[in-house]
Structure formats: C-alpha cells, structure tokens
C-alpha cells in the first residue's frame, strides 16, 4: 500500500521540520513491490506471447488443444495445491449446488474463451484477438453498470463512448462487426464478473473449473481417439511435448499473476494488463504478417484513446484513496 498522509507529507520528531517523502511505498515495501512488478510483467508477457505457442500446434484442431489444455492444467494445478497443502476449500465447494452451478458457468465461459482465442490464432486473426483484450476492461465497466448497478464517472462514460466509436468505425470499414474481438471481450468480461464474486483464490478457482471440465474433455478425447479423429495420437514427440506444456504454461502463468497482484496496487495491475494485447498486436502485424491498414488503425486509435481516459481516471481515483 502507498503511505498514508496528504501529498506524502510525514511528521517528524517534535521541534523538527516536517520532511516531504514521495507518495510511493517506503523502502520496506520496495522489495515486495519490485517483485510484484516482475511477477506481473512476466505473466502478462507470457500471455502476450501465447500466439507463438499455439502456432506450434497448427496441425491440431483448436477444440482438441483446449480439451488437452484443460486436462493438463488440472494435473499441474492439483500438484501445486498438494505441494501447498491447500485443500480446505474442496468440501464446502463441492457440497454447495449453487456454487457448483456458478462454477460450471464460469468453466464454460473459460473454455469458450480459450477455444475462440486458439481458433483466432490458428486462423491468422491474432490482430482481431488482441482487439478483444484491449476493449475487455471497458466491457467489464459496462457489465458493472448492467449487472452490478454501479455508476460510472464522467471519464468512464467518455472512455466507453470512444471505444464504441472505435468499434463502430471498424464495423463500417469491414462491413461486419468485429465479432471475434467482441466475443472474446464479452466472454472474458463475464468470466471476470463470475470470478469477482467467487470465494476462491486463483489456483483453487482454476482447479474447480478444470475439474468440472475434465469429464467432458476426457469423454470427447476418448471418442475422438476411438473414432480415429484425433490429430494428436499419431503425432510425433514434439507435438506431444507442446500439448503437455499447455498445463504448466497455464498454471504457472496464473501463479505469477496472482503473486504479482498481491504485491501491487490495483491501478498498477490495471495499467499492466495492456502488455498482453500490445504484444499480441505486434505479433499479428510483424510476425504473422496480418493486414493492418491505416483505416483500421483509426478504429484502434479511438479504442486506445478510450483506454487512456479510463486508465488515467482509474489511476487518479486510486491515488486519492491511497493518499487519503
């Protein structure tokens, strides 16, 4: 947390002049915050580079990748929880039908988001996918208004209006809605809303979600293998290695993010989340050589302007709270 006190002023000893300190964490908090920045940056960079990973599995269908990812993630997450001895959440979660129903919806939203994202990468639509994660924060703001009945500030309304103008421009230019971006943003926004009200941590939540997906994933994979439709069974060791790696990549990136988020102010985490879509956009343009015209840049620029307004407003409000 940032130090308390108006404008960072601290009171000295009696009879001595008060000295001014910067409104940043004191030295005893500097190491945790620096570690938090490193952990969160590594997580967001890893998420941003995921298109490179999924491109290594171009011969595998997106749904099969996601089914394997669910199972291998479950194995890794359960191993981590076993090492940490964090099992007290299992009984109350599995014994509550309402919780299980909510977690089932959360799991389906996550699986759907994963599947569309992998499909977008393999279909050479990485730029479209990056747009989805750029506008996701503003979609979350709208969901907060519609579902949680929260009130927006004037700056937040301006941010949403700019993003809507950007989407409208892109729709007019392409002759159709940017459905990949909007679906990714909506599914992840709804997923975030579900997780916001969930009583479990990041690892435990992923464990429940993948545990609920496991029977379906295992059954579909077994059917595909029996029917001879699996593209992984007859693949070489390299493909199997990339498939198995999906578990550790998913789980350990989540661990890094959780470790970083615990050590950082929420406003800092909010600003750092743009690392991932920025890297995805760069990969789409310069590595996968996807088209990115000047007209399309105008739509992205409107959305970036909205994000700048939103981020600045969030940062200012967080600064007021931490310095109050």
Short description:
76% of the residues lie in helices and 1% in strands.
Low confidence ranges: 1-28
The overall pLDDT average reads 87
Helix and strand element order: EEHHHHHHHHHHHHH
The overall strand count is: 2
Question: Helicity, in percent?
Answer: over 70%
What can be said about the biggest beta sheet? 2 strands, antiparallel
Backbone structural class: mainly alpha
Whole-number tally of structural domains: 1
Q: For the terminal residues, how far apart are their CA atoms?
A: 12 Å
* Coarse shape: globular
Assess the beta-strand content as a share of residues: under 5%
Gyration radius (Cα, Å) is 22 Å
The total count of helices amounts to 13
Strand order of the largest sheet: 1-2
Descriptive account of the structure:
The protein has 324 residues and is an all-alpha fold. The protein has one domain. 76% of the residues lie in helices and 1% in strands. The protein has 13 helices and 2 strands; from the N terminus they run E-E-H-H-H-H-H-H-H-H-H-H-H-H-H. It has a two-stranded antiparallel sheet. A hairpin with an 8-residue loop joins strand 1 and strand 2 (19-20). Helix 7 packs antiparallel against helix 13. The model is unreliable at 1-28 (pLDDT under 50).
